[in-house]
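Example for tutorial group B:
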């Protein structure tokens, strides 16, 4: 990302940064069926090479947060933003609103880490074909 941004901090770049090889695979068994479906759908829709196996924990956080966000949003739509307090009957904020807001924060933070937001995606570089990308003559020979 620093190469793209022009290395604004002028600190030395890590030429030996670890490069995970294995793509993200099947969802963990402990996720609910709905969460596993979200996992598979997002992996399928993601750019090839973006999600790696070492990203599984951060991705699981995003998937669970998305599921909780969706469930709380559905319930918030049914109850409305204000409910009556059980003991007094005084209008109060729906507890689902706090859940929606918190899960949105978690999702956005995890999404930025994985290149899911438009701003973070513009800073991600995914090497598609290592042999063609490493060939300095590829562009001249018509390979890139």
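The residue assignment follows.
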């Amino acid at each position: 990302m620093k190469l793209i941004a022009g290395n604004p901090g002028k600190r030395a770049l890590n030429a030996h940064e670890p490069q995970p090889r294995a793509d993200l695979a099947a969802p963990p068994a402990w996720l609910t069926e709905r969460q596993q479906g979200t996992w598979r759908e997002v992996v399928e829709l993601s750019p090839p090479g973006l999600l790696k196996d070492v990203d599984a924990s951060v991705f699981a956080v995003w998937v669970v947060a998305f599921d909780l966000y969706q469930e709380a949003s559905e319930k918030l739509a049914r109850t409305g933003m204000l409910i009556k307090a059980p003991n007094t009957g005084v209008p109060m904020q729906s507890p689902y609103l706090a859940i929606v807001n918190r899960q949105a924060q978690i999702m956005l933070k995890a999404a930025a880490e994985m290149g899911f937001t438009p701003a973070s995606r513009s800073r991600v570089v995914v090497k598609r074909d290592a042999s063609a990308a490493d060939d300095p003559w590829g562009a001249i020979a018509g390979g890139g």
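Strands lie at 82-84, 91-93. Compare this with the pattern of hydrophobic and polar residues in the output above.
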